[in-house]
Amino acid sequence: TKCLKGGDFPKGELVHFGNVELSPSSGVLNYGQGLFEGLKAYRKQDGSVVLFRPEENALRMRMGAERMCMPEPTVEQFVEAVKLTVLANKRWVPPPGKGSLYIRPLLMGSGSVLGVAPAPEYTFLIYVSPVGNYFKEGLAPIHLIVENELHRAAPGGTGSVKAIGNYAAVLKAQSAAKAKGYSDVLYLDSVHKRYLEEVSSCNVFVVKDSIISTPAIKGTILPGITRKSIIDVARSLGFQVEERLVSVEELLDADEVFCTGTAVVVSPVGSITYLGKRVSYGDSKVGAVSQQLYTALTSLQMGLSEDKMGWTVEL
Ligand code: PMP
């Protein structure tokens, strides 16, 4: 394949939020050649602002760009662009404990292509927005339904990168689930329809007898940065953590289930519905392990505990 490599990312400019001009024949509009990232800036008690592991988002966007035949920004270019955008919007970072500034980098094929091919030109942009909790429940249990027919990713596809089209694939099942009162959808693997993959926008963990397990990264789920961080935090707290195939039977038999993601942070799961059967966890209370991991991660992100991992980046 002829993929653009490297590319030059000329210094961008800061402009007011507004519409982007695109050719009707742009690669992104016609063939979905687009990628995005999501990360957050937090305000600490002393008023300073920190980013959480932005170089991880840069690396993931580079992997995605390689898969989608797009030029890759360097880690330095990506992080610098994020920093400049957040600095220009610093006043929008909410006070500690009141939310965060969500940062959305986008990379897309903006050049014209009529036949299916990589676009000849690319656009990289970043916009930001203050956010509160992703699920209206906050740190209260969410309710998931296991999807048995529709899939978000197939082996060899783009499921392990943050391709925009992956999110188009979840809209139908997610809308149906929300209309029935569920918070979101949990996907199974498309081959056996038996092993857990992830939720529309977060990774999933199950806890049984104090052992924490999560689906291994095998090409169909997004390698979440929160997932990776929670694995390290849990191990540092003495938990045994396993990355492997996790079956839906294990999910139904778990002591505790929780989801992780930049937007959802750590969200405890209160119930799972699978093939019409509902299983509840922990009497609608937040599970002890979910609570412990949520507190450990958020205190580190907000500067309430010492950042022994070196994960926060001061602006
Ligand atoms: N899976 C999917 C499909 C997602 O969209 C996200 C959010 N980026 C995640 C998992 C969690 O990834 P992260 O912890 O990096 O936000």
UniProtKB/TrEMBL annotation:
One of its GO terms (molecular function) is branched-chain-amino-acid transaminase activity. Its cofactor is pyridoxal 5'-phosphate. The modification N6-(pyridoxal phosphate)lysine is found at residue 162. Its EC number is 2.6.1.42. Keywords: Amino-acid biosynthesis, Aminotransferase, Branched-chain amino acid biosynthesis, Pyridoxal phosphate, Transferase. The keyword Amino-acid biosynthesis applies. The lineage of its organism: Eukaryota, Viridiplantae, Streptophyta, Embryophyta, Tracheophyta. It catalyses: L-isoleucine + 2-oxoglutarate = (S)-3-methyl-2-oxopentanoate + L-glutamate; L-valine + 2-oxoglutarate = 3-methyl-2-oxobutanoate + L-glutamate; L-leucine + 2-oxoglutarate = 4-methyl-2-oxopentanoate + L-glutamate. GO terms for biological process: amino acid biosynthetic process; branched-chain amino acid biosynthetic process. One of its GO terms (cellular component) is chloroplast. The keyword Ribosomal protein does not apply. The chain holds residues 99 to 413 of 413 of the full protein. Belongs to the class-IV pyridoxal-phosphate-dependent aminotransferase family. This is Branched-chain-amino-acid aminotransferase.
